[in-house]
Amino acid sequence: MSTTTAPPAPPAPDATAETAGPSGRLPFWVNQQLGLFVLVIALAALFGLLRPAFFNAQFVLFPLLSDISTLTVVALAQMVVLSVGHMNLAVGRMASFGAMFAGLGYDRLHLPLILGLLLCLVAGTAIGALAGWVIARTGVSSFVVTLAMDFALLGLVSLLYTALTDNAAFTTTPSGMAELRSYSLADICAGPICGSNAIPQLGQFAVLALVGLGFLYRYTRTGRELLLTGANPAAAELSGIPTGRRIITAHALSGLLAALAGFMAAVSTGSFRASIGGEFMLPSFLGAVLGGTLLTGGVVSVLGALLGTSLVDVIRKGLDLLGVGLESLNIYLGGVLLLALSADRIRNVVSYRKVVRST
Amino acid sequence: MNIPNIPRDLLTSVAPAIRRHSRSTETTLLAVVLVGCAGLAIASSGDFLSGNSVRTFLQYLATPVLIGLAQMVALCVGQLNLAVGALGGFTAAVMAVLMADAHLPMVVVVVAGLLIATLIGMLTGVFIVATRINGFIVTLATMTMLLGAQYRVVGTRTVDGYSSFLKDLGSAAPLNIPLVFLTAVATAALLALFMHRGIAGRRLLAAGGNPLAARLSGISTDRQIVLAHTLSGLLIGIAAVTATASLPGVNSSVGGDWLLPSFAAPIIGGVALTGGSVAVIGTVLAAFLMRLIDTARAQFSLDPSWVNFLIGVVVLGTVVGGRVRQSRVAAPLPAAAPLPAAGGAR
Amino acid sequence: MSEVLLEGREIVKVFPGVRALDGVGLRLEAGAVHALLGENGAGKSTLIKVLTGVHPPDGGQLLWRGEAVRFRSPLEAARTGIGVVHQERNLVPGFSVAENICLQAPPSRRGMIDRAAMSAPALRCLAEIGVDLDPQTPVGQLSVAQKQLVEIAKALFTESRVLLLDEPTASLSPQETERLFEVIRRLAARGTCVVFVSHKLEEVFAVCDTVTVLRDGQSVLDSAPLAQYTHDDVVNLMVGRAHTTAGLAPRTCDTASPPALALSGVSTAAGHRDISLDVRVGEIVGLYGLVGAGRSELAKAILGLDRIEAGEIRVHGTPVRINSPRQALHKHGIGYVTENRKEEGVFLEQPIVRNITVTVWRKLARALGYVPAKEERATAADLVARLGIRISGLQQLAGELSGGNQQKVSLAKWLAADTRLLIVDEPTVGVDIRTKRAFHELLWELAGKGLAILLISSDLGEMVTLADRVVVMGNYRRLGETDNDHDYEEMSGRIIRLIHGRPEEAVAPAERNPA
């Protein structure tokens, strides 16, 4: 029966294919992405008004965008597993695991920058695939498996750093890494026109990840199969989707992205150490969930991960500039998460009521 | 869902209960713990069984037991509580500061600490119920907020100038059994009684096992969620008290390493994440096992990182082993299929 | 006339975009068995939820023994004396039978459960419906039928004067159903009003006294004596137009080429022994049996979800070994329309276009796995038109559709993949009569176009209408086979004889009756 739809739904153009969640049939002002976008811009403007230093390209925007780049990749790493209805609690530890291999490659094998990155990604993919394989093979909840993985990697990575290095860090940096860290678009010129010095080159990885995942979820068979596996594993299996393989795909991809984020974090700080990724778990969920990805699987929002992460980081930076202590920031961040989600809930309830009343 | 370890009324079904228990997670755990103790005793050439090391062992077992139980209560109704460590740390910090800086009497502070933790747990539950936001996300948020709050309270210092009476209580050990450990055991016993015999406990489990059935029988699942978080908060409060009593001082890192063990204990102990199951003894034994690993690590003077690594491996081994055993008992997997239908893999 | 227990007047209930109930009247009398009928989506479930306090009504009046009442929760309704046995199993799996029965008001002393005192009332309730069960058994160990009886006992514990049974026979065998009817009659005799909701009209006529028929949220027949109406009258009231039973165009099947699917002497890890059957191209073969006969399990074994231990499966003459549903689909063209629509059939929270094209992405995919959205939409739109699925747009979520339309979506994905053999498991359970009819025509037409169909159904009428041959199964064995002459009386006699024409089940498992 088609009568449960709110307005006489027009044959929707396919542009919103990736976010065809429940929000897809509610009025436009319930659109989470749009709301986030407006909120990010408004907050940035507000902070800019209160502290004009907020718009300082070199000292505020550049590091801010670096952080957003890294954490967006982290949020994407979480989003990928959420799409199959799973979680990856080991996202931070997979990042440090991957980064460790990059550091090892640079330090011992004297690899060039790009090969070290490759090694890092391969390691991350492998550890993610292992988690996925255990989950698919045994059917144990991903929460438990990745939690155990988190424990194991936490121990393993520190042990390896202790065994392999003198002061628990790889500090050898290949040529090009310093540039990657400090260069912005201002260092890339097409003739006389140079880019903005606010946008870090590190951002290219985030853009690459966003485009890649956007393509995956919107246009490809694998992306659709991931979503349907998340939406209903039993029906997916009976419909001929290799659900076991898709679960492994999702976790491997999550490991890959986590490792990429670990590499980016290491590039930003300049050294490879066990503590990389220690702070990743919260932002990974913050970004993905604020962006509109469902914990239950089946609905993702690639762009939302960027917007959600941006919101968090803009607030963090803005409050920092306003003189709120770094550690106390956490209080506000937790509050923002609750507020944002409650507001979302209220919007949904209000629009639901409106629809009911008009019936 | 076939949870083997809900002890039934012993009066009416002693024999079946024994049969059930002979193959339960708890029995396996008990065996592993005994073997581990024996092994450690041999490796330490008897030192491990000396009065002093037994006391130390039990002294630092109290808090892990309590946080494991706090998590278990949340799991009972199908909720997760990510704020276990943060709430514990925050409560401990508040209590320490109240005693050291405000010089309030110890009894008042302990009561206040328990009340604060319980209240925060209850507010978390109310918030989850009121907004219908996933408990995972809500507790993630409260965890973040509490971490910030804990830092606000103690800052970078280590508060140690608090009530020496509490510290004396913390190190008191009648019959060589530390008081804090007795507190934990008594709490566990009360909790077991509550869960197995108490009306409220049974309601909690009914709501976790089949929310719809519970609702139709007039059990408000919302209220059970609030109750579970409240109870979880109370247990965390007790854990914060034992921690404050046992530790030399309280700083912003207290509670930072509680989260993972709090999940490990009930999961190893045989509690299902889906709700409706309870395993007090299993959780206690699992905490015991983890403490054993830590002690063994110290015995062989290994890097502390080994503990995390080993606990990770043990958790993985437990759940995977449990699943394999289950599927072998139930129905053999299709041998030809490289990857069996991962229907339940969420 | 006996006492009126519960009366509803002009009840209205509104959900977003739909008036689920729009002026429903209902009168439940003590000692009566009251049938509540209506197509899917007519508002039966909503009415039950309003009567039991799950949803507050948005308009109208509820009267309990003549006094206006307003239930704010299921508990209030239950305390008043309205019990319900839902389609969903409402038992706590970890608890014992006794504790489940007493869940609403467990005997207790000072906040502690009194387990010893729990057995007595549980046993009393079980005895009242003539069920012999150990109250200490965990309900997780009971069969579906036993669980249902425990649920009825549970309703008795709360001293329900009105007991609503929502599709109670959906997963019961005929014997179990007969047993349930005895319980229902016993309950009515002691002054309870039993409300019986079922799609199976035969059962309704067998056990009910009065009837209410809902259509489009309104009561078109309000608490009338059932004896005054014939089977066809009731169907007409439900459907709202004359229900035609015109025959379907004749159809022939291909007997020359090898069968699309042939099982010979198949034994499975699920417990099937020595099963042989074949389905030819363009043929509908019925697989009939009681619940628990192992039919769906056989289908899943064919799809590779359970191990084949002995025997041989041939697809179009070639011996095959199928390891997974995707192999069955992509390599052998076998599709399976599950009986468990909501859990295994459709993706409720996903758009229709994805629900239909899930099986063809592999075929549509280009380089890098790119699936052209245009072709995807075209495929889905084509099937929506072919099957007459009523939707508001391809992006509509499947969960918003009615049961019948969901079932069509579930079928559409297999047609999209051009399967050559379709295993259809209970296609019309919980589907209203109009859709059922359309479904039968559809299956018939598909077979006419050369699709081989293995039809699993517990609905004998459906078997007789559709199947060319009927294979009867019992206890994971083949009991026999009979050609269908489309005569209901004749066929039901033959099939019942096949089912009972052998010694007690499981006594001599090695024996097998040849057809």
Secondary structure layout plus pairing:
The complex is a heterotrimer of chains A (359), B (346) and C (515).
Chain A (H helix, E strand, L loop, with lengths): L31 H19 L6 H27 L7 H18 L4 H26 L3 H23 L4 E2 L6 H6 L6 E2 L2 E2 L8 H17 L1 H11 L1 H6 L4 H27 L2 E2 L7 H10 L11 H20 L7 H29 L2
Antiparallel strand pairs in A: 1-4, 2-3
Helix pairs in contact in A: 1-12, 2-7, 2-10, 2-11, 2-12, 3-4, 3-5, 3-10, 4-5, 4-10, 7-8, 8-10, 11-12
Chain B lengths: L13 H9 L2 H19 L7 H9 L2 H15 L7 H17 L5 H26 L3 H20 L9 H8 L7 H18 L2 H11 L1 H6 L4 H26 L12 H11 L10 H20 L5 H25 L17
Helix pairs in contact in B: 2-14, 4-9, 4-12, 4-13, 4-14, 5-6, 5-7, 5-12, 6-7, 6-12, 8-12, 9-12, 10-12, 13-14, 13-15, 14-15
Chain C lengths: L3 E12 L2 E12 L3 E6 L5 H8 L7 E6 L2 E3 L4 H7 L1 E4 L11 H5 L6 E2 L2 E2 L1 H14 L15 H14 L4 E5 L7 H16 L3 E5 L3 H7 L2 E6 L2 E8 L5 H9 L21 E8 L6 E5 L4 E6 L5 H8 L5 E8 L2 E3 L4 H6 L3 E4 L3 H5 L6 H6 L3 H4 L8 H15 L15 H14 L4 E5 L7 H16 L3 E5 L3 H7 L2 E6 L2 E7 L4 H13 L15
Parallel strand pairs in C: 3-10, 3-11, 6-9, 9-10, 15-20, 15-21, 18-19, 19-20
Antiparallel strand pairs in C: 1-2, 1-4, 4-5, 7-8, 11-12, 13-14, 13-16, 16-17, 21-22
Helix pairs in contact in C: 4-5, 14-15
- What is the subunit arrangement here? heterotrimer
Strand order of the largest sheet of chain A: 1-4
Order of helices and strands of chain A: HHHHHEHEEHHHHEHHH
Largest sheet of chain A: 2 strands, antiparallel
- Low-confidence region ranges of chain A: 1-26
User: Could you list the spans of chain C in which at least 5 consecutive residues all have pLDDT below 50?
Assistant: 502-515
Rg estimate of chain C, integer Å: 25 Å
Count of alpha/pi helices of chain C: 18
What's the overall average pLDDT of chain A, rounded?
A: 82
Task: Assess the beta-strand content of chain C as a share of residues.
Answer: 15-25%
Largest sheet: spatial strand order of chain C:
6-9-10-3-11-12
Q: CATH first level of chain A: which class?
A: Mainly Alpha
Calculate the terminal CA-CA distance of chain A, rounded to whole Å: 15 Å
The largest chain-to-chain contact, stated as pair and per-chain residue counts, equals: A-B, 56 and 52 residues
Instruction: Please give the CATH class of the largest domain in chain C.
Output: Alpha Beta
Quote the distance from N terminus to C terminus of chain C.
53 Å
The count of domains of chain C is 2
Secondary-structure-based class of chain C equals: alpha/beta
**Would you count the extended β strands of chain C for me?**
22
CATH topology of the largest domain in chain C: Rossmann fold
